[in-house]
Design a protein that fits this description.
Length: about 425
C-alpha cells in the first residue's frame, strides 16, 4: 500500500463523494424506487407491548366469567369474532388481522420472557442468536441500501433493559439503531464545524487505515464492522425520515399526539423508505395493580394508533407487503389479585399479525372459558417465529453457518402455523 498523504486520501474521498450522495438521494427521493419498494419489498413493524399486555382486555375477552373483569366483548367486522370493547376501531378493521389466542411460552419472567420472544428460542453457551429484527434485516435488507436495516424505539424508562435488540452471530451490520432517549438518532448530523470535504476525507482515511489493518487479518467481525461504517453517509441522508414534522398536520392528527403515536408514524415513514424492520416499544403494561384503569388507557391508545397505522399502510398500497405484529413477553393472569391487578402469565395468551402473508380476519387457537389454559392449537415462541418468517416468504429452516456448524432460523422440528398463513 502506498504511503498515505493528505492529498491522496482527499482525492480518493472526492472521487467517491458524488456517487455516495447520489445513491442516498436516490433512495430517499426517487419516485421510481419508491414505487418498486411498494410493489416488491416486504417489511415488518413490530408493536412491542412491554411489560405484558392482558389478552383478556384485548384479543381474548372472557365477559361474564369470574376472570373476565368489567369490560364487555364486542362483535367485529368478521362474523363470529369478538374482542374487547376497549378496541372498537380494531373491531371495525378485523378484516386486516389474524389473532393467535394459544401462545404457551412457559416463562413469566420479564427478562428471560422478553429474550425468548425476541429470539424465538434460548441462547446457548457458545451461540448468541440474532433477534427477529436482525434476521429480517439480514433476509429482507438490500446490500446497497442507504437507510437503516433495523430501527428500535424504546424511550420509556420501565423495562428498558428487557428491550432486547441484538444481531448475535450476524455481526454489527445488523445491530439495531436503538433509540432510547429521542425519536431522532443522536450524532447523525455532520458537525457544523466540519466541512463536507473534511467529512469525506475522514471517512476515506478510516477506510484506508481499515484496509491496512485487515490486510493480514481475517474474520467475520472485522468485515461486519467495515460494512457498517461504509453506510454512514446514507444513514446521515436518512435523518429526515425520523422527523415527524415532515408529515402533514392532518396525518399527524390521525396517529394522535402521544409519543407512541408519533413513533409509529415515524415507523411507517421508515418502512415506506425501505427499512426492513422497525420496532416501536410501548411500556407500562405491567399491571400488577389497577389493571383495568391501566388497560383502559393503554388499550384505547393501542386501538387508535394501530388502526391509524393499518389504514395508512392500506391507503399507500403498503399493507399487502407489510407485516404488523403486536407482541409482548407474556400475557396477564386470568386471576384478579387483591390489588385489582393481573400478574405475569405465559400459559395462554395472545398476539396478532396483520397484513402481509397472513390469513386476515381469522382466529387461531383457543383458551378455556376462563382463559386459564390452551384447549386448542397450542404453540410456543418457535412456532410463532416460524409463522412470521413464512408470512414474509422466508424459509424458517434456512441455515446460517457459525464456523462449520449449520444453524437454522428456528429450532429443528419447528413448524409454522399454516392456518394463519395466506
Amino acid at each position: 500500500m502506498p504511503p498515505l498523504t493528505r492529498r491522496s486520501f482527499l482525492a480518493a474521498a472526492g472521487a467517491t463523494a458524488a456517487a455516495a450522495d447520489m445513491t442516498a438521494l436516490n433512495v430517499l427521493k426517487s419516485p421510481l424506487l419508491a414505487g418498486e419498494l411498494k410493489r416488491q419489498e416486504k417489511r415488518v413493524i413490530l408493536l412491542w407491548l412491554a411489560g405484558g399486555a392482558s389478552q383478556l382486555e384485548t384479543w381474548d375477552p372472557k365477559p361474564g366469567r369470574p376472570t373476565g373483569g368489567p369490560f364487555r366483548a364486542i362483535p367485529t367486522s368478521v362474523a363470529g369474532i369478538h374482542i374487547s370493547e376497549l378496541m372498537p376501531k380494531m373491531a371495525e378493521r378485523m378484516g386486516t388481522t389474524a389473532i393467535i389466542r394459544s401462545l404457551n411460552t412457559r416463562d413469566g419472567s420479564h427478562g428471560s420472557g422478553a429474550e425468548l420472544m425476541h429470539l424465538g428460542r434460548r441462547n446457548e453457551a457458545s451461540v448468541k442468536y440474532p433477534d427477529m429484527g436482525a434476521v429480517i434485516a439480514r433476509e429482507l435488507g438490500r446490500a446497497e441500501s442507504q437507510v437503516p436495516d433495523y430501527v428500535s424505539f424504546y424511550t420509556s424508562t420501565e423495562g428498558r433493559g428487557n428491550a432486547v435488540g441484538t444481531s448475535g452471530f450476524l455481526g454489527a451490520r445488523y445491530q439495531p439503531m436503538f433509540l432510547t432517549t429521542n425519536t431522532t438518532p443522536e450524532n447523525l448530523r455532520r458537525l457544523e464545524s466540519l466541512s463536507d470535504v473534511d467529512h469525506h476525507a475522514r471517512a476515506e482515511m478510516r477506510r484506508l487505515l481499515s484496509q491496512r489493518f485487515a490486510r493480514d487479518r481475517r474474520g467475520s467481525a472485522l468485515a461486519s464492522h467495515n460494512e457498517a461504517y461504509q453506510r454512514v453517509r446514507g444513514l446521515m441522508a436518512s435523518e429526515k425520515l425520523f422527523d415527524v414534522e415532515q408529515e402533514p398536520q392532518a396525518m399527524r392528527d390521525k396517529y394522535g399526539p402521544t409519543q407512541f403515536g408519533e413513533q409509529v408514524l415515524v415507523a411507517r415513514r421508515l418502512s415506506e423508505a425501505g427499512v426492513p424492520f422497525v420496532k416501536v416499544g410501548r411500556a407500562w403494561w405491567d399491571s400488577h395493580g389497577q389493571n383495568f384503569e391501566t388497560h383502559l388507557e393503554l388499550v384505547t391508545e393501542l386501538d387508535h394508533v394501530m388502526s391509524a397505522l393499518l389504514d395508512d399502510l392500506a391507503e399507500r398500497g403498503l399493507l399487502e407487503n407489510t407485516l404488523v405484529v403486536t407482541l409482548s413477553e407474556f400475557g396477564r393472569t386470568p386471576r384478579i389479585n387483591a390489588s385489582l391487578g393481573r400478574d405475569h402469565f405465559a400459559s395462554a395468551w395472545s398476539a396478532t399479525l396483520s397484513g402481509c402473508g397472513v390469513k386476515v380476519g381469522s382466529v387461531y387457537g383457543k383458551s378455556d372459558e376462563d382463559g386459564q389454559t390452551v384447549v386448542d392449537g397450542e404453540i410456543g415462541a418457535g412456532e410463532f417465529f416460524a409463522t412470521v418468517y413464512q408470512a414474509l416468504g422466508i424459509d424458517h429452516q434456512k441455515e446460517y453457518y457459525l464456523g462449520d456448524r449449520p444453524l437454522p432460523l428456528t429450532d429443528p422440528g419447528t413448524e409454522p402455523v399454516r392456518e394463519v398463513l395466506a
